[in-house]
Amino acid sequence: MMRYFFNILRSAIILILCLFFSGRAWSQSTNYIHTDLGISVMALRDEGMSPLMYSGAGFAGALSLERHSASKTIFHSLSFGSGDKHNQYNRPISFWEVSYRSITLYHKGNDSQNSILWGWSNNNSLNYYTNPAHRNFGERSNYFTTFGPAAFYSRTFDVFGKELLLQVPANVQLLGFYLRPDYVTNAPAGYTNPEYSGFRAFIESAGMFLPHQAWNFGVSPKLIYRLKSGNALSAGYEYEFTRINDPEPLTQSMGVWHVGLITKL
Description:
- This protein has 265 residues and is mostly beta strands.
- The protein contains four helices and 13 strands.
- It has helices spanning 2-20, 23-27, 189-192, 198-205, and strands at 30-46, 54-68, 72-86, 92-106, 115-130, 139-159, 162-173, 175-179, 207-209, 214-219, 222-226, 232-244, 250-264.
- A hairpin with a 3-residue loop joins strand 2 and strand 3 (72-86).
């Protein structure tokens, strides 16, 4: 089951990277690579595993590609995180997360500076965690692919003679699908039926990600200091909230403090 989740995420990443690295994209745009490392703080309540909340800090990182053209600004980001979380009785779970996100924003010429831009976003997230206290059903995993509107605010400040750039991307996910384990197994319901396999099992397992039963939103303010070389240093905070009601309620809140290097290509 985990292999199928990773195959979905890997295919999406390969497709987007192929489009991004096309010759036309590079020849007609300005491109940057963001490398970020930081500390995450997360709270998780998966009532299919336990009614208790698990929380704690962990390690997080991200590799992002930023592209500016005459009419679009596009961000592609691959992030990961891991760490042990504990409940109120100090019982642990081991948590891993990997996600791919993209934001496409539209503008005219230099309108991307000191303004609010609008566009759309895509979020693909896979969480996997193990609970050693649950021997039979100790493994849990959640995956979703979603789309929704995005906004982006940027502004340049002069601080003690130094130019600082503030970027604040935000998104709300409204439509997509998710895969979650059945209540009494570690796999989604479609994969536990011997009559289903492959794509049919996926169709039987997928739930619709719709506003009345699932939510996901995020905001990522970042402060950037440009160097004379054209590269930059950055510091920021990323917050993301997820709620899925079926088959059992899942609530996840995560914040990441990070520093990074931005390289101009």
